[in-house]
Specification:
This is Putative flavoprotein involved in K+ transport. This protein is α/β, with parallel strands linked by helices and 500 residues long. It has 2 domains: 10-46 and 99-145 and 344-489, FAD/NAD(P)-binding domain (3-Layer(bba) Sandwich); 166-338, FAD/NAD(P)-binding domain, CATH 3.50.50.60. The chain is built from 14 helices and 20 strands. The chain has helices at residues 20-31, 49-52, 83-96, 154-157, 185-197, 221-227, 230-247, 256-272, 276-281, 299-302, 361-365, 396-414, 426-438, 465-474, and strands spanning 8-16, 37-40, 103-104, 109-115, 120-125, 130-138, 160-163, 177-181, 200-204, 211-212, 294-295, 308-311, 315-319, 322-325, 330-332, 335-338, 352-354, 383-385, 418-422, 481-485. The strands form 5 sheets. Strands 1, 2, 3, 4, 5, 6, 17 and 18 form an 8-stranded mixed sheet that branches. Strand 13 (315-319) and strand 14 (322-325) form a beta hairpin. The longest helix is centred in the C-terminal third of the chain and has 19 residues, at 396-414. The chain is globular, with a radius of gyration of 23 Å.
């Protein structure tokens, strides 16, 4: 691993976060000859979200063919890769491209501040040290900061309370009464697992989600033999991507596809849950795709078990050994699992970014994050974002690869002697188009993590990913950016990259 060599280290590129986005960016920079790079990771290991995600049943929702990089395709053992295999894949990517020597673990970044006299950023680390970089890439991701409800009476509860992203290594629920708070995608993965282990399971639901079955299974030997053929793997990857592209049309409010898929979801709910009262409580009152669709073939049938109870109310408060729901009913429990999601719409919430003239990025956003193609903010030079505002939807790795290539190309074009900014007006024009389209989508009609406090949809890309790829190829270089000479560098500094 890389280590701080002094209080004032200097690099060409600092990447914050060693998840899939950070690693993709590091690989693309390396392939363009830019090796003076450091990856700063706050956790004890690489992998980002998949390093932290360790609860039983955690897996991806897209098919495994779409969950490996094009520059390092991989065959997983299941149709939908689980968290253990995903951490193994991340480790293999780091090993193959020699990235471990660039990673500094247990190194959280608190502030990124532009130094106008030097035309570079100074990063303040949680350890108290600092680091200077000509370019900074925030790859902290969208699903990193847990959304933990402020539960009244939590100090008096007496039992275990933890978020799914902070799963204890020694967690055991045998013979215990467990409450799960939340009914989103994470809950759908953990509820069937806990139902098999606990003595009694209570699931507290504030609002139901639309559920479709996910045909996940282990691959058998013949499957793996076929998938390991490069031609077959490429074909399956392409067909999986095209299928995912078609799903986007089902998110448009009132469209023929949207109504058709909602009918499928209603029929599945009817067949999966036997109790009509429970079934009614699990039926959403908003259009399909109003929230992230829950994909699971095990979640809904779990509510047919005698030892599983759906509580169709939010949690009001905690008492010693009990949860009191919003209706006032008291439920005795031993443990509480918070499947309450993440602060997805609060981009870079743990990071202070200060640009030229002392402009604070969060004040600039004023609670409504936006960026050009989700990657650059007007007026913040040499600062890039992976998986930023309005880029969520579809295959995450496809988006990350588009962004890694765009960012690496931008840094290469700038080289160590120039400063790069997005052209004035370009961000706002694209944002207007995105928001106009988002208003036509079902997720603008429901309460979800896609929206900021003001109601603006700040996470979702409402078009196809093919369109995102096209725009990232079209709007680059001088078409999208302006370059100016940077302040003279220290001659001893590593020269990385070649500018135009």
């Amino acid at each position: 691993m890389a280590h701080l060599t002094s209080e004032r280290d200097r690099v060409t590129v600092a990447i914050i976060g060693s998840g899939l986005g950070g690693l993709a960016c590091a690989v693309r920079l390396q392939q363009r000859g830019i090796t003076d790079v450091v990856v700063l990771e706050r956790s004890d290991g690489i992998g980002g979200t998949w390093w932290d995600t360790r609860f039983p049943g955690a897996e991806v929702d897209v098919t495994s063919e779409l969950y490996s990089f094009s520059f390092m395709p991989w065959t997983f053992s299941r149709t939908h890769a689980g968290h253990v295999e995903l951490r193994e894949y991340v480790a293999r990517v780091a090993e193959r491209f020699g990235l471990r020597r660039s990673v500094r673990l247990r190194t959280a970044v608190r502030e990124v501040r532009w130094l106008e006299e030097a035309d570079e950023y100074e990063l303040t680390l949680a350890t108290g040290g600092t680091l200077r970089a000509r370019h900074v890439v925030s790859a902290v991701g969208m699903l990193t900061e847990p959304r933990t409800p402020d539960l009244v009476g939590s100090g008096s509860f007496g039992g275990r309370v933890f978020h799914t992203s902070r799963w204890p290594a020694d967690a055991s629920f045998s013979g215990r009464r467990v409450a799960v708070v939340g009914t989103g995608s994470t809950s759908a993965q953990i509820v069937p697992e806990l139902a098999r282990e606990s003595a009694q399971l209570l699931v507290f639901q504030r609002q139901p989600g639309w559920v479709l079955p996910k045909p996940d299974r282990d691959y058998e030997a013949p499957d793996l033999a076929r998938l390991n053929r490069p031609g077959v793997r490429r074909w399956r990857r392409w067909t999986a991507f095209r299928s995912l592209e078609k799903v986007k049309s089902a998110a448009e409010t009132g469209s023929k596809q949207n109504l058709a898929v909602e009918r499928v979801a209603r029929a599945y709910l009817e067949s999966a849950v036997s109790d009509p009262i429970v079934r009614s409580a699990l039926t959403p009152d908003y259009p399909f795709s109003g929230k992230r669709t829950v994909l699971s073939q095990y979640y809904l049938p779990t509510f047919n078990r005698d030892d599983v109870t759906l509580v169709p109310h939010a949690v009001q408060r905690l008492e010693p050994g009990a949860v009191v729901d919003a209706s006032g009913e008291r439920w005795s429990v031993d443990d509480i699992v918070l499947a309450t999601g993440f602060k997805a719409s609060e981009y870079l919430s743990t990071l202070t970014v200060v640009g030229p003239g002392g402009r604070d990025l969060h004040e600039h956003w004023a609670g409504e994050p936006r960026a050009f193609l989700g990657m650059m903010v007007t007026g913040f030079p040499n600062f890039f974002i992976m998986y930023g505002p309005n880029t969520n939807g579809g295959s995450v790795l496809f988006t990350l690869e588009c962004q890694a290539q765009w960012i690496a190309d931008s840094i290469r074009r700038a080289g160590p002697e120039r400063v790069v900014l997005v052209r004035p007006g370009l961000e706002s024009r694209l944002d207007t188009s995105i928001q106009r389209r988002n208003k036509q989508m079902a997720w603008s009609q429901a309460d979800n993590y896609f929206r900021s406090a003001s109601g603006r949809v700040v996470t979702q890309w409402p078009f196809t990913q093919t369109r995102y790829w096209f725009l990232s190829r079209l709007l680059r270089g001088r078409t999208a950016m302006t370059f100016r000479p940077a302040a003279v560098l220290d001659p001893s500094r590593t020269q990385a990259g070649v500018h135009e």
